[in-house]
Amino acid sequence: MTSKERTRVKNLPKRKPEPAEPEQLELQATQTAAVLTPAERELIGTRAYHTYAADPAISREAALQTAVDELLPERRVKINYGNISHWVVKLWQQLDEQTGKTLATERRGGAPFKKVTILKPEPAPEPVAAPEPVAAEPAPQKKKVFWKPDEAEQAALEAARLMVEDHEGKLSELAALRQAQINVLPEDRHRTLNQVKVVEDVIERVQQLMPIVRRNLARKAQEEREAAEAAARIEADRIEREAREAREAEERVRAEAEAEKARLLAAEQEARERIHAEAFRSAVAQEVQRHLDAAPYTQLLGALAKKVMGDFMGELVKEMRSTMEKQLLGMVDELTKPAAPAQATPEAAPTNVVDLHKPEHLNIVVVGIGNQEYDQLRKDFFGSVTFKQVKVLADSKNGQTAQAMLEAAKGMDAVCAMHHVVGHDVKVAAQTKLKDMKVPYVAVTGNLRDLRSRIKSALSGEIPFECAA
Prior knowledge:
By secondary structure, the chain is mainly α. Helix content is 57%, strand content 4%. The protein has helices at residues 3-10, 31-35, 38-54, 60-71, 81-99, 149-165, 173-184, 200-294, 297-307, 311-336, 371-380, 400-408, 424-431, 433-436, 448-460; strands at 362-367, 385-390, 414-418, 441-444. Strands 2-1-3-4 form a 4-stranded parallel beta sheet. Helix 11 (371-380) links the parallel strand 1 and strand 2 (385-390). Helix 6 (149-165) packs across helix 7 (173-184), helix 6 (149-165) crosses helix 8 and helix 12 (400-408) packs across helix 13. The two termini are 108 Å apart. Residues 15-34, 109-125, 127-131 and 342-356 have low confidence and may be disordered.
């Protein structure tokens, strides 16, 4: 019963006694005709009309009784359809005209709905001796069904679910119970639910269960939503992981290719140096042999060895040995003396010249470059230069960067600093403490390209790293 209908019932006018009409003489003894006012009849009949139209399984009398129980529960009126059909027919015919339906004349499992005409009582005929009744076999009656507690609980729970899912609010508790017993109970446990009062306890349980069912449905929807979000996160993590693994695999392949390239370059450099060393040794051996062949003491030694014996031979050998040592030392000085530059074309350049000042490996500290530039340097000089990185710290004014540079410079071949990035503390430390450590300091005034060019020059021996005087 809605609040609007409850207010309408509360504001109904009080019933006034009406004069008895001839056609109502036989209805004076019934309770219904005695307690319902015309306004109450219109309200009850209209509500029963809509209930009867919404539920095809309900009878006319059950629809009227349900309307009375819902709208006037405190009156406890018992409906007898045969006694009130005369005004119900009129009201329902008017409602049919308004709605376009035919409920007033609809046949629903019985005779059509017709107006009942009440006639005046006729005089009773004289009693006639009736024949003795013949005993007839009584028709089997359906056993009345009473729900067990667990069956009532199942029906109430299902009815509560149906009412919670009925967002339009068209389903009443009684209609929900009728549908619920069809959904959850066997057919032999169905009840004829025509009145609210026969299942008041079950309807009360339905009202108690509705908040619980509503919370359960909300929690289930929340769990489904959270499960969907978790599945989406798992899928996103999987896609990200696969992309990361693909990037790592690509980086590994690239690193292996670069390592293989560096290995081949190192092997080629080693072979070239080995060829140069062998050529150098061969050239030295040939030059020594040429000087020995041209020396006059070899012939003199051979002649004297035949004629001179004893002590004279020993003294002569000592003298010859001293002469040979002097000549060999002079020959070595001549070979190690730097040759004058020759005007030779690239085609005539000697292939056995070795740069004795070219370093095989360098250890360099770089100051003032970022991580990306540092990684690029390591790749460019892989296998030939070992780097240490010193970043310019935020508190460089306190000498932290200079201290880090001095610590990293121990045992290194040189320190290369980006002149436009490092602070005054680094420059002062380079001129004092770094100079005392005998570690060369190179100030690079350009960018990473200039730093790379300077390191290449040092590796090739063109411009070696040297300490400032």
